[in-house]
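hey so i finally got around to running both of the ones u sent me last week. sorry it took forever, my laptop kept dying halfway thru and i had to restart like 3 times lol. anyway pasting them below in the order u listed, first the sequence line then the structure token line for each. didnt double check formatting much so if smth looks off just lmk and ill redo it

first one:
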Amino acid sequence: MVKYVVQRLILMVGVVLGVVTITFILSRVLPSSPAELMLGGRPTVEQIAAAEAEMGLDQPLPVQYINYVSDLSQGEFGRSLRTGQPVLSEVSDRLGATFELTTLAIVLVVLVGIPLGVLSAVRRNSMLDNVARAIAVGGVAIPSFILAMALQLIFYGALGWLPLQGRVAPIVSLDSPILPITQLYLIDALLTGNWDGFRDALAHIALPLLTLVILLLATVTRITRNMMVEVLKEEYIRTAFAYGVPKSSIYYRHALKATLIPMLTVIGLTYGNLLGGAVIVEFIFDWPGLGAFVVFSIIANDYPASLGATLFLAGIYLSVNLIVDLLYFVVDPRLRTQ
């Protein structure tokens, strides 16, 4: 197992280096000038040349690449051309919002989607199964921006139950500010006993969270159902029924256990993609997360910010996949002897 972990870590380093190389080259072939963005207004040719020299953009591309990788190895991601702040600080400030939203979404999807998929498989072709399959097809087919705006129209426009966008209301930020301990507002509000802040943060996260849960629930429910249907046809499951083993034990201790490895793969990949792929939902709900930050940085050709955020997301995605691979050894002890 230790050898496997070492091999995966070496592979992760190679993948990260590949991501750095590709994103670096793409950032340099864009037609717009980062120096003009940093200067703003209508800079002269001399000012642009001086700014490019200061940023090292006048050097040959291989030299720029070596300098950039050298800075990364020292934990230096550069400064954002739009804000002038360190990229690492900008990413850290926004990562908490994305992590809170996506983690809550994947937890709810697992808690709801897996039992729903099991019940759908057990009661095949029943009303519950038909409804679950309809939800799965609808969740996969509906575009995320349509679903997000529909929920806004219903719960904010028609019913007035939930706020439209943002992470907390301005009045709460002034009267009952949430002390940023972990950057996860719900947890921070609970830790400090800030109940007004907790209720407001919960109300603001409800709609983007519901959007992601509906979109992801379809995939997890459908995959759980399909795998359970196949497992329930196995001989050892039929034997367990014949010996009178309680159905709940057969379904959740034996049949579901046989699906855990592929389910872990699906959940891990979904979560990794979600950390960087919730851009549209974050944009529509004005959620101050990392996805929208990356998009705006790319549009503005803020290459230090876009490179740093992309590298950060790639590292998180690879880490999630490594954790999932290690969980395989926990779920199936037979793998430890291979």
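and the second one:
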Amino acid sequence: MTSILNPYLSFDGEAKEAMEFYQRVFGGELTMNTFGEFGAEDVAIKDRIMHAMLKTPSGYTLMGSDLMPGMEHKPGTTVTISLSGDEDALLRGYFDHLSAGGTVGVPLEKQAWGDEYGQCTDQFGIAWMVDIHPKDA
């Protein structure tokens, strides 16, 4: 087995909505389990997502969960997820969907280094970069 790196995102009670949003953006198979499914009876956490995993047709795996009540939540301040490649339409579509309802920090457009590049923060506070390389480069 080879090793892989998977982004694992934390949410403050929005993991279900966020992971369903990412499934609409990227497609694929989404599995989710709540704390209650694993025996938690505390009303404050039983319906929160303990673990979610999205496996996409593009080969991405994105994981996430809700934080326990009282844990600090600071999305978008230290990590940005970067998507890159030469599949223009696919990556442009991801950028459009991720930025809808969020904010665009850098519009997706041609940059000095020749790539099309943009930055956005989605509606859940997660920062994304998209870099589209020219196919002939």
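quick thing i noticed on the 2nd:
The radius of gyration is 16 Å.
anyway thats it, ttyl
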